[in-house]
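Table S5 (text form). Sequence records supplied for joint modeling of the two-component complex.
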Amino acid sequence: MFFTAITTVAITLFIVGFFLIVIYDIQGILTSIKSQVEVAVYLKDNITDELKTYLENEIKGWDEVAEITFVSKEQALEKFRKENEGSEILKEIQGNPLPASFELELKSPEKVEQIALRFLDKDGNFIEGVDEVIYGQNYVQKLFQITAITGSIAFLIIIMLLLATVVLIFNTIRLSIHARRKEIEVMKLVGATNWFVRIPFIFEGFFEGFIGSIISVILLYFMANYLLIRGEKAIVDTMHIKELAILGSNNVIIYIYAGLIILGGLIGIFSSSFALKRYIRV
Amino acid sequence: MIEFRNVTKIYADKTSALKNINLTIKKGEFVFIVGPSGSGKSTLIKLLTREIPVTNGAIYVAGRNICNLKTSRVPQLRRNIGSVFQDFKLLPNKTVFENIAFALEVIGRPSYVIKLQVPQVLKLVGLEHKMNSYPHQISAGEQQRVSIARAFVNRPPILLADEPTGNLDPVTSEGIMKLLSRINLIGTTVAMATHDKNIVNSMRRRVVELEEGELIRDQKRGVYGI
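The corresponding structure-token record, covering 508 residues in total, follows.
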């Protein structure tokens, strides 16, 4: 019975932990993507230096903008060449067709649309000197929706999993107590005090929860380090995310591990205390 | 030693198990509680160990009303009352010695006391040679002796037996009765619920008869039926 309970705790908490890590991970990736939402303001080739400087100063004054970088025509071409190295397309390019631009990094990515609108005049045309403004309109809106939805779904899943875990562990411990009900009955009949009966079971429940959760954390540790981080690297590479504030560089996973161990111990103690109530009343 | 004053017990499902029972059992007495199944014998015994609460009336054990005993004091009461059951209630995964020792361990007796008292009580019940056997390795009569040894190892002043011979053949039952008589002779008050006519008739002890929860007969040196 002891091992059944430990296995149950280990497996259920592993699943809870797995979901916590994966969901936290996904949220982290989405946040990194969000923080990289940029507005690219392409300038007309014939823009005067005065107008360029004027625009640059104007944009710098906006609170929502974290950083503004000027990319000249030459830099743009250089960047383009690097990104398409070895490609046929480079041979086709004559002169420099690429425009100069301002790249804006935002403090609050949610305001990207408002900022983009500032480059339009009353009639809906781009203001003088600006050729085009690009910020991935649909993509950005969808991304924000997805983050919000996955967040609430994740929350629900974790709550359900936790409930299932508590019920499952409680039942397992109750079964192990049920298997020893005769012993409890005899103890009570020869005059053992309630606490004398209770304490060994509570200790047992605690150890079952504690050891089970430690096993789950060990499994999670290996899973996170050998599978998740590789998966993440793949995501980072394919999606061109600059930085990922996740597993390797973050303490959150430690908190998840600690939380699982504390949870395991507590569930063990409470399950055995509650399950005992029925048998102790002789 | 034991006194029932106007004791009534009605179970939660409204079945009335005991009706207005008045009964006094003196120290050192041996009392048979007889009556058909469902007459209230077991209820009477369960009330004494506070396994179930009374509905009305008062029960005094050694001068104390046990009906208003705090839950935390119930273990103390049970340490002064040995209980023997029809189904022995031995733990199958413990040896004879361990089963008896268990009763002392759970009330916090030190191990040197256990090592001293368990062999003594095993000698009293005649099973010192079986102390390392498991319950399934010994006969039903021997198992009941072990359960009596367990009930008596703490030398309680009162011993309650609920149909202790219910699962035993007449010869084995006779041996159990001799054992209970011996325990009674040492000064222990013994109350035994039974519907075994032969035993009651051969012992010629006090007989209390219950019928449908009412006390209908209380006779010194009685027989099972009139």
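Note: The beta strands of chain A are 38-43, 65-71, 101-106, 130-134.
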